[in-house]
Amino acid sequence: MVCGVFCLWMGTNAMAASTGFDEQLLSLQKQWAHINYETPAKEREKAFEKLAVEAERMVQAYPDRPEPLIWKGIIVSTWAGARGGLGALSLVKEAKALFEHSMEMDPAALSGSAYTSLGSLYYQVPGWPIAFGDDKKAQKLLEQAVKINPDGIDSNYFYADYLMEEGDYAQAKVYFEKAMQAAPRANRMVADEGRRHEIMAKLEKVEKKLR
Predict the structure, then answer these.
(1) How many other CB atoms are there within 10 angstroms of residue 180's CB atom?
(2) Which of 2.160.10, 1.25.40, 1.25.10, 1.10.443 would CATH assign to domain 24-147?
(3) Looking at the predicted structure, is the pLDDT value of residue 4 above 90?
(4) What is the reported pLDDT for 87?
(5) Whether this model's pTM surpasses 0.85
(6) How far apart are CA 125 and CA 136, in angstroms?
(7) Hey, where are the domains in the chain?
(8) Among candidates 150, 167, 166, 152, which has minimal Cα distance to 199?
(9) Cys staple from 160: which of 36, 95, 139, 176, with CB 3.0 to 4.6 Å?
């Protein structure tokens, strides 16, 4: 009887912990989407900085989970984009380290999001001696991201964006269209809508290049 009650107590607490984790992660995701897609550009840098502090608290609370590392990396890398210039370099290096750490734990976490996010950094940041940008590494990571999550909106979007930057407009069009066909993500309406607007804008550019 004691064991039964104890096991029930343990199971209930494990479920509560799991629910708390999921709610905290979803909160980070929703706040990121709100800042990135609904907040005026001049206010984003400070908003991302504040959100990064919240993400760090989650990283500290769940040191054995890769998901908070991935989301802190996404927040920090987007914060870098909002800051811009040389002042952003320390942030992109921090984001890179966060993605790499998460991949050491579980490279397939969040449907391979670390591959997508790290790959996007490699083709968007400057190369040596300024930073670590490397198109070949970007390609390898982004191809792996699509392999893990072949129907994902972000995996296909960032691979398409990389291909567009490389001048492969025909293949970029294929992957942008695939990203547009991705199924809506649960509780991620703002992020999905914002990403689709980005896809449509880039598809228009690609189609002009193909005419």
Answers:
(1) 16
(2) 1.25.40
(3) no
(4) 84
(5) yes
(6) 13
(7) 24-147, 150-211
(8) 152
(9) 176
